[in-house]
Amino acid sequence: MSPPLLKLGAVLSTMAMISNWMSQTLPSLVGLNTTRITTSDTLTQISPKEGWQVYSSAQDPDGRCICTVVAPEQNLCSRDAKSRQLRQLLEKVQNMSQSIEVLNLRTQRDFQYVLKMETQMKGLKAKFRQIEDDRKTLMTKHFQELKEKMDELLPLIPVLEQYKTDAKLITQFKEEIRNLSTVLTGIQEEIGAYDYEELHQRVLSLETRLRDCMKKLTCGKLMKITGPITVKISGTRFGAWMTDPLASEKNNRVWYMDSYTNNKIVREYKSIADFVSGAESRTYNLPFKWAGTNHVVYNGSLYFNKYQSNIIIKYSFDSGRVLAQRSLEYAGFHNVYPYTWGGFSDIDLMADEIGLWAVYATNQNAGNIVISQLNQDTLEVLKSWSTGYPKRSAGESFMICGTLYVTNSHLTGAKVYYSYSTKTSTYEYTDIPFHNQYFHISMLDYNARDRALYAWNNGHQVLFNVTLFHVIKTEDDT
């Protein structure tokens, strides 16, 4: 096919696509007013990626509100569905308008080409008549060439008329698209903007109410453990890593302590990202070796068990000095009452929303777990609770809101099996499973700021998310 006919085929194909789109898509505009935004004053469940999530809600016999709220990963505000649909449709129409404009320019260009060819054809036709009248005076070769040229040009005669018709149709399409764009723009300005502002205010109101609810939350009860999220693979089979639960939001330093004994080196990283990449910011050489892996960083200081003793050390990262040390009376040490995996894990130091704690065992309590609340400055024991759970049968333990949660193993199949509330001095057996992905846990501690469990799992540094059940305090509560 000659070039003019190829161009014509492309134009006709494009026109067919435009006609098909206009017949199938434009009628759908009739359904634009079918979307409704419902208004409700009740708290509804929303995705954690879009806002706060209510885990459950109810009322207790005294009429108090009981609910669970999961803090969002991030706050996003989605536009109204109708507004988004209108905006997308308007974009499609604008894109189609641009395509038609390009097609129009191409058609006009080809139209001018055909007009020129029409003039040439008329001239050739006149010459052809002259050749027929006097064919004997011309060579046969020249005559044949002219005839072949004429045969190529003859099909363009009906094409000229088709181009004239197509040009008119494109002009009509341009006008219809222009009118439709104006209508859609008006709808978006008149309806879409109003609905979006209304929705935005409702979302802000809900978020404010949920934040107020969060401020009234008392300490929660552990309901579920999910994960883990593997942060890094490093170090030996045993170790500890942690962040400070009392640090500001901008302070995300990470501390790393490899091995459970014969080590005094603490490595510091400015952030989780630096920890993952291995970019150390500072190294500390402690004055004493530590025992076990159950250390804790709390309010800028490191608390750890001094090797081969029941002495607790408080070490300041800022000053690089030991601020306090105290013997934990009657506490077993040096693998007398460790967790099931051993490793001199006799004394477990931890922190939660209430404060600083030590978990250990004594001969006086027949090797069962003792919980002591400590003064963070002097390390003095403020109060102790004696449980009936054998320390040697515990895989690991951690404190959340004054309640000790104990796992039944450090190996595959481990679960939170026992809990003891220091508030009520009561215990209960639980069944909260979690995934021990790398088969051997030698450190498991709760961070109240992150609402997460930090774990050292067979040379893997991992995080577990926790779900807590909260009770809302009312103004009548004292």
TrEMBL record:
Q: Coiled-coil stretches, from where to where?
A: 79-141, 170-216
Q: Where in the cell is it found?
A: Secreted; Synapse
Olfactomedin-like domain sequence ranges: 218-470
Keyword Signal annotated: yes
The reply on keyword Disulfide bond is: yes
Q: What is its main location?
A: secreted
Q: Which UniProt keywords apply?
A: Coiled coil, Disulfide bond, Glycoprotein, Secreted, Signal, Synapse
Q: Which InterPro entries does the protein's record reference?
A: Noelin_dom (IPR022082), Olfac-like_dom (IPR003112), Olfactomedin-like_domain (IPR050605), Quino_amine_DH_bsu (IPR011044)
Question: Per the UniProt entry, what are the Gene Ontology biological process annotations, in alphabetical order?
Answer: signal transduction
Listed SMART domains: OLF (SM00284)
Per its UniProt record, what SUPFAM superfamilies does this chain match? YVTN repeat-like/Quinoprotein amine dehydrogenase
Tell me what this protein is called: NOE3 protein
**What organism does the UniProt record list as the source?**
Haliaeetus albicilla (White-tailed sea-eagle)
